[in-house]
Amino acid sequence: MKVTFPFLAPPIAALLLSWSFFLPALSVHPETERLIQEICRRVDNFQFCNTTMNANLRADFEGIDDLAQLAILVALDNATRSKGYAEELARQETDKDLKFCLVICSNAYGVVNDSFTAAKTQFDGGDIAAVNESEKKAAQPIKDCDFSFTRTATRENPLLERNRQMSDLIQIALSALQNLLP
């Protein structure tokens, strides 16, 4: 007869799961953690920055170069997903004014996507000044997206939180790059 203790499984699973959240943080090199803190102190939303950088950190990332590249990749991924989301909302929307705003936002995320695609290529080529210019260009389209919802009598902006996160990611990318600029 097999004896099992099912009441032990959930606590052990919970313990293992909680360790998995702390183990990556324990393996971060102290200098990398210091750089993340430095980057995040220069942005408006410290907690979002710190959480985002640590959540996307790989064990082989060391130094400001890797963190600047990480910020670019996270921003690019977010812009790509947000563009797709805005396009999907626009396709499904029947309200003419709201659909117009969503198309503006989809196009805005396209510009942000292009800016970070260029920034990635420029970073890989070592042209840090060009990366800085590309990242700076990404901020205005998100503001334009938000503004488009103030111009019509539509309901609330369904992209407001995504826009806020994108703006934060742009700030993070620019902050990470500051240590590389002459």
Q: Secondary-structure map with pairings?
A:
Layout: H1 9-26, H2 30-41, H3 46-56, H4 63-92, H5 96-124, H6 128-137, H7 139-148, H8 160-178
Shape: elongated
Distance between the termini: 72 Å
Helical fraction: over 70%
Binned strand content: under 5%
> What is the tally of helical segments?
8
Rg, rounded, reads 20 Å
Structural class: mainly alpha
**Could you give the order of the helices and strands?**
HHHHHHHH
**Total beta strand runs:** 0
Largest sheet: none
Low-confidence region ranges:
1-26
Average pLDDT score: 86
Description:
The chain has 182 residues and is mostly helical. 76% of the residues lie in helices and 0% in strands. It contains eight helices and no strands. The chain has helices at 9-26, 30-41, 46-56, 63-92, 96-124, 128-137, 139-148, 160-178. α4 runs antiparallel to α8. It is elongated, with a radius of gyration of 20 Å.
Provide the descriptors you would attach to this structure in a database record.
182 residues, mainly alpha, 8 helices, 76% helix, 0% strand, elongated, disordered N terminus
